[in-house]
Amino acid sequence: MRKLWALLLVLPLTACSGDVIRMTDSTWMVTNIYTSRDEPNVVSDLVVTQPTLDFGRSSLSGHTGCVPFQGLAEFSRDGEPSTAEEADYLTFTELEFDELTDRCQGQERLVHHRLVELLPGSFEINRTSDTEILLTSDVDELDRPSIRLVSWVMTE
């Protein structure tokens, strides 16, 4: 009987393990910001307010860890407009960040400045797992900056 209960508990978990979180169905936490080999990750455990991104069909909103922001998001695949789910490329424009206050200090302020610098621009989209996305900046640099996002929503 115990084996039957254990099997019943495990089946729902394995049945859903392959569910991919759609970009527009989740709040995405910024877990890593890679800017150079010397500074591979500026989002540390010391950050009290986790930075987030929320994608709409053609928009973006989020929080830098210090202030909210919003803007436009243009998704494309092979140079043609596409849905967020099919996209391999993303461009952020018309980003507006709320005014930064003196209350934002330390690690949060560093993360805020990194996101304000990186987000206006274009990114290659790479799904590293069902619940992770790596946005790599489309710039002419050997070590291209990137932002790692992890879904706030768990697969069902």
Overview of the structural elements:
- With 156 residues, the protein is of the alpha+beta class.
- It has helices spanning 2-15, 106-118; strands at residues 27-34, 52-55, 59-63, 68-77, 80-81, 89-97, 121-129, 132-137, 146-151.
- The chain has an eight-stranded antiparallel barrel.
- The longest helix is centred in the first third of the chain and has 14 residues, at 2-15.
- It is globular.
- It comes from Corynebacterium gallinarum.
- Residues 1-17 form the signal peptide.
Q: What is the fold-level CATH name, i.e. the topology?
A: Lipocalin
Mean pLDDT: 83
What summary fits the major beta sheet?
8 strands, antiparallel, barrel
* CATH architectural arrangement: Beta Barrel
SSE succession: HEEEEEEHEEE
Question: What radius of gyration results from the CA coordinates?
Answer: 18 Å
Oligomer: single chain
Structural class: alpha+beta
Write the layout of secondary structure elements.
Elements: H1 2-15, E1 27-34, E2 52-55, E3 59-63, E4 68-77, E5 80-81, E6 89-97, H2 106-118, E7 121-129, E8 132-137, E9 146-151
Antiparallel strand pairs: 1-2, 1-9, 2-3, 3-4, 4-5, 4-6, 6-7, 7-8, 8-9
Tags for this model:
156 residues, Lipocalin, eight-stranded antiparallel β-barrel, 9 strands, disordered N terminus, signal
Short description:
This protein is of the alpha+beta class. The protein has one domain: Lipocalin (Beta Barrel).
